[in-house]
Write a structure and sequence with these properties.
alpha/beta, TIM Barrel, 2 domains, eight-stranded parallel sheet, two-stranded parallel sheet, 10 helices, 12 strands, 28% helix, globular, disordered N terminus, disordered C terminus
Length: 393
């Protein structure tokens, strides 16, 4: 909502003149670039004004009558990230997702790569969309695979260990990418270490105190040491199931380390019996998201689902939802039925529905496909299958 510059309970001519003068000063100064809207209290006490305004906007979404759930679409990993799915949605619906997700993981090198992800993220931000950065580590701090079960999380944050040397290198690479986005003015929904309550990633299913220390170590290193104040921190657990532990909120690092919460869930039965954990996450008092969603299941989606069932089920069963991130390929709305009906639902917030100053929309900007000057790689952006790899709905 616009900032109210009028003193409360006054309507005198002098008050109106004061308000006008303040407005002129605002538009004549660098503060004019700051978005309109209430500023929230962020986990990072030094988060920039744009990040605080975005969080404030998201916090207010569930109390609206309509335009209350952010549409999101994932766009791929590292060098394989592509706006292809975004373009397909736009062609079918006439709308662009309110926010997009990209990942810094490079499956070609089994390392991290930030350039292509940042290119797509920055271009989309400049067109007025919000941005999420994810991270799935192809190589564990032990030098093993993504699902390496032998990683001791405390070793990762203990100087002098081999695991710490690898972890520190990854932290520095991620921080450099996020710093580039900060310099470009981009606020990032930062979603690290997701599905930590599951047993399929090297950081998942570990002792709760160890995970909390790992998360807080990253938080402090990024915000204090690296000076990253453009991040909104997303706690993204997996829906509760046979392969999860400690409860869906059991790994929660604390209010001072998280801005948004949510779960990752795949399946066609979008209800509390299958997607378990919503009440516990909402009770944390942070905005709630479907941080990952795909119909059918976590693998081999046929692309035959009625995607409009997602928003219908949110309305009926998960009404405090502030946003969702649909996965790509055959999990994408563009590759399933009723994509246009889904994106035109009155509850859905698309990119054009966002407040004009919330993201980096530029006056007279053309296009809108998330592309920068260079043409992005359009190779497939999903290797391997999404998180939930050993879970399912």
């Amino acid at each position: 909502m616009p900032i109210d510059l009028m003193p409360k309970n006054r309507s005198s001519r002098s008050a109106r003149l004061l308000a006008a003068a303040l407005a002129c000063l605002c538009f004549a100064s660098p503060l004019a670039a700051e978005p309109a809207g209430r500023e929230a209290v962020t986990a990072d006490p030094k988060a920039n004004a744009q990040a605080r305004a975005i969080l404030g906007y998201i916090q207010g979404l569930p109390d609206r009558a309509d335009k209350r759930v952010l549409s999101g679409q994932w766009a791929g990993y590292g060098p394989m990230a592509t706006p292809e799915q975004l373009e397909a949605i736009s062609k079918q619906t006439g709308h662009w997702p309110a926010y997009i997700g990209v990942d810094y993981t490079d499956w070609n090198t089994h390392g991290l790569s930030t350039a292509k992800a940042n290119q797509i993220a920055t271009a989309y931000w400049r067109e007025g969309g919000l941005v999420e950065i994810d991270i799935v580590f192809a190589t564990s701090p032990n030098g093993g695979e993504l699902n390496d079960r032998d990683v001791n999380l405390i070793d990762c944050i203990t100087p002098g260990t081999a695991a710490n040397a690898r972890w520190q290198q990854d932290l520095d690479t991620m921080a450099a990418g996020l710093q580039e986005l900060q310099q470009a003015g981009v606020v990032v929904l930062w979603r690290p270490l997701h599905e930590m309550n599951g047993n399929w990633f090297w950081w998942g299913g570990k002792p709760v105190p160890d995970f909390v220390r790992l998360w807080r170590h990253m938080f402090d290193y990024f915000t204090v040491t690296k000076g990253l104040h453009n991040l909104l921190w997303v706690y993204s657990a997996n829906i509760e199931g046979v392969n999860t532990r400690a409860g869906i909120a059991g790994y929660y690092p604390g209010d001072g380390y998280v801005d948004l919460v949510g779960f990752d869930a795949y399946g066609d039965h979008i209800d509390p019996d299958h997607f378990k954990g919503y009440p516990a996450l909402v009770a944390l008092g942070k905005p709630f998201f479907f941080c990952e969603y795909g119909p059918h299941g976590p693998s081999k989606a046929p692309g035959t689902a009625d995607i409009s069932n997602l928003i219908k089920s949110i309305r009926e069963h998960f009404p405090r939802t502030a946003g969702f991130m649909c996965w790509n390929e055959n999990w994408s709305p563009a590759n399933n039925r009723n994509c246009a009906e889904f994106y035109n639902d009155p509850w859905i917030v698309n990119r054009e529905d966002l407040p004009a100053e919330l993201a980096g929309r530029q006056a007279g900007a053309a296009g809108g496909d998330g592309r920068d000057d260079a043409q992005p790689d359009t190779s497939a952006g999903k290797t391997p299958s999404p998180g939930n790899a050993a879970s399912g709905p």
